[in-house]
Design a protein that fits this description.
By secondary structure, this protein is α/β, with parallel strands linked by helices. The protein contains 4 helices and 15 strands. The longest helix is centred in the first third of the chain and has 17 residues, at 52-68. 42% of the residues are buried.
């Protein structure tokens, strides 16, 4: 999933604030520019400040920003601070689009060279990473990825837009757009069924 350009630090942080503050009325989740935050909403920012998951997102953004400017020691230091303070381990080499929401950061792992589109949501114990048993590539995930508690996406798989990976499910194969997957290995839930 490629973007035309990588948004800047401020653009990403504004989108993170907006996404963490709650659902967005009137947003078209098929719009490729749907991540754009219109302005800084101070009320939304204040509501995000007590949330450890928001701090994890901010520390990741800063770590990535320093990494892209060749300041690896500062970047790596922020990555370690993030893990120590929030319990989330997010590589500064991961490419995560604007609108990163981490509801419960403990145990969240996002590996090196993973690509994730805009407006993603993570819960505790969820991971997107290389499948070490296979040694095969890194996941490439679309927009509006929703990771339930304990959910995993492993290996060089392509995950479409608007995908929900169910609780304790492990996805090791490609997933189409607009799909909910459940189980180990994760399989698509039929359209007429709801997540248990």
């Amino acid at each position: 999933m490629s973007r035309d350009r990588e948004p800047g630090l401020l653009e990403s942080l504004l989108a993170d604030v907006e996404w963490n503050a709650g659902e967005l009325p009137g947003v078209d989740d098929h719009d490729p520019e749907g991540w754009r935050a219109s302005r800084l909403d101070v009320k939304a920012l204040v509501s995000c400040l007590p949330r450890p998951g928001f701090h994890a997102a901010v520390l990741y953004r800063l770590s990535r920003w320093f990494r892209k400017r060749g300041l690896k020691p500062v970047s790596f230091g922020l990555q370690l601070v993030n893990q120590a303070l929030t319990g989330a381990e997010i590589s500064h080499n991961a490419d995560i689009g604007p609108g990163l929401r981490i509801l419960h950061p403990t145990g969240v792992y996002i590996g090196s060279d993973v690509r994730i589109g805009f407006r993603s949501t993570f819960n505790q114990g969820s991971a997107v990473q290389k499948n070490l048993n296979e040694g095969s590539g890194n996941p490439d995930c679309g927009n509006y990825l929703a990771m339930s508690p304990g959910a995993k996406v492993l290996g060089g798989v392509r995950v479409g837009h608007r995908v929900w990976v169910g609780p304790n499910s492990t996805a090791v194969a490609d997933i189409d757009d607009d799909t909910t997957v459940l189980g180990v290995p994760a399989r698509p839930l039929p359209p007429d069924e709801e997540m248990p």
